[in-house]
Amino acid sequence: MKTFAELGISxxxxxxxxxxxxxxxxxxxxxxIPALLKGPTDLVAQAQxxxxxxxxxxxxxxxxxxxxNKNVQAxxxxxTRELGQQIAKQLFRFTKYGPKIFTEAVYGGAPIDAQIKxxxxxxxxxVATPGRLLxxxxxxxxxxxxxxxxxxxxxxxxxxxxxxxxxxxILSLTTGKRNTWLFSATMPEGIKEIIHKYISxxxxxxxxxxxxxxxxxxxxxxxxxxxKEKLSTLLYFLKEQRNNRGIIFCRxxxxxxxxxxxxxxxxxxxxxxxxxxxxKERDKVMxxxxxxxxxxxxxxxxxxxxxxxxxxxxVVHYQLPDQIExxxxxxxxTGRAGKKGYSLAIITRxxxxxxxxxxxxLKIFIKPVY
Length: 370
Hints:
It contains 15 helices and 14 strands. The chain is an alpha/beta fold. The strands form 2 sheets. The chain has a 7-stranded parallel sheet with strand order 3-4-2-5-6-1-7, with helices on both faces. A 7-stranded parallel sheet has the order 10-11-9-12-13-8-14, sandwiched between helices. Helix 3 (27-38) packs parallel to helix 4 and helix 7 (130-138) crosses helix 9 (164-173).
């Protein structure tokens, strides 16, 4: 196994990585970092959440940015506020012992005036949701003429959330002046169009095998019951977990809201995170969960993008996800930083074939609980 130093990462960043318990490069980091450090190149990487994507693009960006140049030199586009905040926080941590590189995260649902003020200070990297970036561009609050690299993180998610026009506009504004590094879990037609239109045919291409994506520290289980028995099954599981904290995933907003009401009625400290919440409501729920005032978070897949909460003992799939990639993303919320995790799917008999499909695709064993 190579070390970060052998991949070409400088000592000050390696020191910060060690402090954050990031000791060995993942597969995508081993493939991407040396190539991105070597010289200007476009990149197309197919990789799910949990593969170490942020460091795969973040470390080469930090090495390439000139700390003496106060202009925006790199732009990272991502689908949600939570993911944007997480990326900015990671980059800040990585630079603890090195030259000061300033990263600013900008996103919708927060006061734009405060973001305009923040961007008036020296900023070398901007992490943005596409809609808010365009708002800031229209107001002349951000200057992209010095941008050398654009990262599209979770590009398929940005398309599924309706950002296609915004992405086209942003990429058109910066065309010919920069390298583009695209990361996507899936490669639908819309992503292929972007690759064809904006990315060099000579781009470096990386695909991380799905089987290497699943964290080996997570135990996977499923329990079969009737639909009407799901709540009582969940309550029994939560009782066994006592004071342990976790996330319960639902496929729909309605199901997440309903389940939150049912758990609160049983005096369980829970709240729901879903797309219908105002930004300040989302922030309030996440703050309570991170500060351990909430024991359980009930979330939809899109709402949970970018959530990074330490010491979660378990994840429950109360409804199975629409896409197999989401199973990986959900399960990856537990078993982090070398700790053991537990993933439980509560399913009906007819959903057993979906469990088998997940096992086949991800090359994992999901053990039945009787």
